[in-house]
Automatic annotation (TrEMBL):
<dbReference type="GO" id="GO:0005737">
    <property type="term" value="C:cytoplasm"/>
</dbReference>
<keyword id="KW-0378">Hydrolase</keyword>
<dbReference type="InterPro" id="IPR027417">
    <property type="entry name" value="P-loop_NTPase"/>
</dbReference>
<dbReference type="Pfam" id="PF03029">
    <property type="entry name" value="ATP_bind_1"/>
</dbReference>
<comment type="similarity">
    <text>Belongs to the GPN-loop GTPase family.</text>
</comment>
<feature type="region of interest" description="Disordered">
    <location>
        <begin position="321"/>
        <end position="408"/>
    </location>
</feature>
<dbReference type="GO" id="GO:0005525">
    <property type="term" value="F:GTP binding"/>
</dbReference>
<keyword id="KW-0547">Nucleotide-binding</keyword>
<keyword id="KW-0342">GTP-binding</keyword>
<feature type="compositionally biased region" description="Basic and acidic residues">
    <location>
        <begin position="321"/>
        <end position="346"/>
    </location>
</feature>
<feature type="compositionally biased region" description="Acidic residues">
    <location>
        <begin position="369"/>
        <end position="408"/>
    </location>
</feature>
<comment type="function">
    <text>Small GTPase required for proper nuclear import of RNA polymerase II (RNAPII). May act at an RNAP assembly step prior to nuclear import.</text>
</comment>
<protein>
    <recommendedName>
        <fullName>GPN-loop GTPase</fullName>
        <ecNumber>3.6.5.-</ecNumber>
    </recommendedName>
</protein>
<dbReference type="GO" id="GO:0005634">
    <property type="term" value="C:nucleus"/>
</dbReference>
<comment type="subunit">
    <text>Binds to RNA polymerase II.</text>
</comment>
<feature type="region of interest" description="Disordered">
    <location>
        <begin position="1"/>
        <end position="37"/>
    </location>
</feature>
<keyword id="KW-0963">Cytoplasm</keyword>
Length: 408
């Protein structure tokens, strides 16, 4: 926020100064076209730089928890459990549903994608299948996501957590443009963590466990957000085996070797690769049904939010600065080009390279004397000759004239 003020103040200070000097020398500028041109450029400079340079405000609270996971891993049931936990413990939560296709929700929501887009209507209207329908609904919703962020920002002081449920088809959220837009919108405004829900009983098989971990790994690297491996359904199977496999790859290899298929060899090799990935993760075991592990889950969320502030936020600031620098460079380049064009045309004529051959326009826009133009064009022609190839030499004379008229 300080950085925000720091970057904005100079522009506020600069503006009146530029305006004053412009007013006092207005008469002089009128007489001197170059002076007028220069003032116009400076005005443009102020307007150009006043937008896009301010970094959005950033708060420490609420923490956004995006719940993702394979279909049926228990995301919605876990959301329900988390909502109950927050109610019981006077934790101030806000609940968002991003699954357009869910029929009923066991918990009350504050913002529901289904209120904005009707998934079945989208399917009908765009002639889509179920997955296309969900994807398009989410895309449509993403176009309004700035409003969602504004709503949360307005309530930020009264909130501790924002819980976000996502569609069952995980790839729709994690690999779509809208998923990226939504995640980035959250992550650039609030501390954001991803809770990756794992169906623990199903992951007792080493191959399934490995594919689940690979997916989690890809999400971690794609979002660059802190990720909590949330082993759900521990009321059915305890997640101890998973922790063991993650800590000791030999234990995992021993389990995988009982399977003699080629996937087993691949799985064993991958376990070595994922060793580093496991070090960057927090793991908790929970049961959305019994409520076991909620304290541990929220502790992991808090630790991840701290991690976010230390690493992701710093990275985000760096990327934002870099983007601003590039934007500033590009803007300067454009302004230089514009300045040159305006100087060339005396500030009155703007020649657009439309690619259209319109002799009339060329003549009527000409504010230079015919002779001057011919001279200038001849010069340009001379310069250009150097880069013509033999093929271009065969352009007929008429065409040469046209090129001259529209050339810069
Ligand atoms: N035993 C047990 N069952 C669970 C638990 N969590 C979820 N389930 C069951 O798992 C099934 C799927 O749960 P959902 O919450 O719908 O899973 P989801 O990930 O939201 O599903 P989609 O949104 O369709 O991908 C349901 O039958 C739940 O009752 C749990 O902790 N323990
Ligand atoms: Mg669900």
């Amino acid at each position: 926020m300080d950085a925000d003020n720091g970057s904005r103040d100079p522009k506020i200070d600069d503006a009146p100064m530029q305006m004053d000097s412009g007013n006092s020398s207005a008469a002089q500028a009128k007489d001197d076209p170059q002076e007028e041109l220069s003032q116009n450029m400076n005005k443009l400079h102020i307007e150009g730089s006043s937008s896009g340079n301010g970094s959005p405000s950033f708060r420490r609270k609420p923490v956004i928890i995006i719940v993702v996971g394979m279909a049926g891993s228990g995301k919605t049931t876990l959301m329900h459990r988390l909502v109950c936990h927050t109610h019981l413990n006077n934790i101030r939560g806000y609940v968002i549903n991003l699954d357009p296709a869910v029929m009923t929700l066991p918990y009350g929501v504050n913002i529901d994608v289904r209120d904005t887009v009707k998934y079945k209507e989208v399917m009908k209207q765009f002639n889509l299948g179920p997955n296309g329908g969900i994807l398009t609904s989410l895309n449509l919703f993403a176009t309004r996501f700035d409003e969602v962020i504004s709503v949360i920002e307005r309530r930020a002081d009264q909130l501790d957590y924002v819980l976000v449920d996502t569609p069952g088809q995980i790839e729709i959220f994690t690999w779509s443009a809208s998923g990226a837009i939504i995640t980035e919108a959250f992550a650039s405004t609030f501390p954001t963590v991803v809770a990756y829900v794992v169906d623990t009983p199903r992951s007792a098989d080493p191959s399934t466990f490995m594919s689940n971990m690979l997916y989690a790994c890809s999400i971690l690297y794609k979002t660059r957000l802190p990720l909590i491996l949330t082993f759900n359904k521990v009321d059915v199977v305890a997640h101890q085996f998973a922790l063991e496999w993650m800590e000791d790859f030999e234990a995992f290899q021993a389990a995988a070797s009982s399977d003699h298929s080629y996937t087993s060899t691949l799985t064993q090799s991958l376990s070595l690769v994922l060793d580093e990935f496991y070090n960057n993760l927090k793991s908790v075991g929970v049961s959305a049904v019994s409520g076991v592990g909620m304290e541990a889950f929220f502790k992991a969320v808090e630790a991840s939010a701290d991690e976010y502030m230390e690493t992701y936020k710093a990275d985000l600031d760096k990327r934002r600065e870099e983007r601003q620098r590039l934007e500033e460079e590009r803007r300067k380049e454009n302004m230089d080009k514009l300045r040159k064009d305006m100087e060339k045309s005396g500030g009155e004529t703007v020649v657009l390279s439309t690619g259209l051959k319109d002799k009339e326009t060329g003549k009527s826009k000409n504010i230079m004397g015919e002779e001057d133009e011919d001279e200038e064009m001849d010069d340009a022609d001379d310069d250009d000759l150097e880069i013509y190839t033999e093929e271009e030499d065969v352009i007929d004379e008429d065409e040469d004239e046209e090129v001259d008229r529209f050339g810069f």
